Amino acid sequence: MLNNIRKKIYFPITLSVELVKGCVNKCFFCNSDRNIFLMPASIINSVIKGFSEIKVDNVTPFGMGESLIHPLFYDFFEELIEVNKDKCAFNDLVLNTSGISFNSRRMIDIIEKHPHNGFHRIHFSLDADSQVTWEKIGKSKNLTSIKEKISSFTTWKVNNRHIEPLITVSMVDHNQLTTDEKENFIETWSTFFNSLHINFENCSTWPPHHKNAIYIRSDTRFEKTEKREKCTDNNFIIKADGKVFACVRNDIPDKEFIIGDLNKQSLLSILSSSKSEDFINKKYVPDFCRKCSNEC
Q1: Contact 89, 123 (CB under 8 A)
Q2: How large is the greatest C-alpha to C-alpha distance in the chain, in angstroms?
Q3: Residue 293 has what pLDDT?
Q4: What is the mean pLDDT of the chain?
Q5: What sign has the CA pseudo-torsion 60, 65, 69, 70?
Q6: 100 vs 227, which has greater pLDDT?
Q7: What is residue 1's predicted lDDT score, i.e. its pLDDT?
Q8: Which helix (H) or strand (E) holds 181?
Q9: How far is CA 157 from CA 97, 113, 153, 160, in A?
Q10: 3-state class of 88 per DSSP?
Q11: pLDDT for res 5
């Protein structure tokens, strides 16, 4: 019965979950809020329950903050994977993190208990190859220790023959990089991947679905991008306060894009509403969308 309901409802392609609004990092190229707000446990429970009733292609615990600093993150993450038995709730789970609170031991425990439940990729946004640049751009904690955590986790993954989660290490090509730092970053991680015989790709766009990657992306603050009439992403987000929006951008007008509130409604009722369906099927296109460059 539940699977029949899932098939009949138009769900968004991607659903992001903003466990933390705001970030302890102060990266100058990111417009994340510096005031930290944590998603309450009651909303987290509603999210988990909601995923037992819906089906999306992709889910990511990510918004305008560093999700892993939430004290309930690993409990939430494991429950989310548990709900996804036989990939009934989502196909791919992607974790985006700067790595500052990455607990490799806890993550290994989760994977060992749930090895085939859709945990597809960990995307580590490092944005530096040296501690000097790391501190200059506003990152917290020690870069070397984070590199060691990534290395040890990836080595464990290979030694235990886990193909997923795939690993991406990324850098924004920003103006605080030292001479040759981008090239050094690529060389460092290429050498590491090659030492483990990992198949990977160097990318300037989002990595191919089945490849580990070294991802160098441009600083989009200075780019002129082509305007799009309609968004092609269908990327909805559950904000830390429980409100659900039909767009992940943080500068959208609330009145037009809010489609529900988990403090008052279930996730299933929100995503099966006529307003949600109109956004997904492009029957409703706010003026803001017509001016958007789709840079999110």
Answers
A1: no
A2: 60
A3: 59
A4: 85
A5: negative
A6: 100
A7: 43
A8: helix 181-195
A9: 18, 14, 6, 5
A10: coil
A11: 46
pLDDT tens profile 90-120: 999 999 999 989 999 999 999 999 988 899 9
pLDDT (0 to 100) of residue 296:
52
| Bridge partners, residue 65, by sequence | 22
Place of tokens 């981008």: 182
Answer yes or no: are the C-beta atoms of 50 and 17 closer than 8 Å: no
Q: Structure tokens of 185?
A: 């970053």
What is the rounded distance in angstroms from the CA atom of residue 121 to the CA atom of residue 124? 10
Would you say 3 and 88 are in contact if contact means Cβ atoms under 8 Å apart? yes
Token digits for 11? Answer: 């769900």
Residue of 98, 154, 149 whose CA lies nearest to 127:
98
Q: Each residue of 35-59: pLDDT tens digit?
A: 788 999 999 999 999 999 998 999 9
Q: What are phi and psi of 202, to 5 degrees?
A: -85, 125
Range 198-202 contact pairs with CB under 8 angstroms and sequence separation of 24 or more: 198/154, 198/158, 198/167
Amino acid identity at 264 = K
How far apart CA 289 and CA 230 sit, in angstroms, is 6
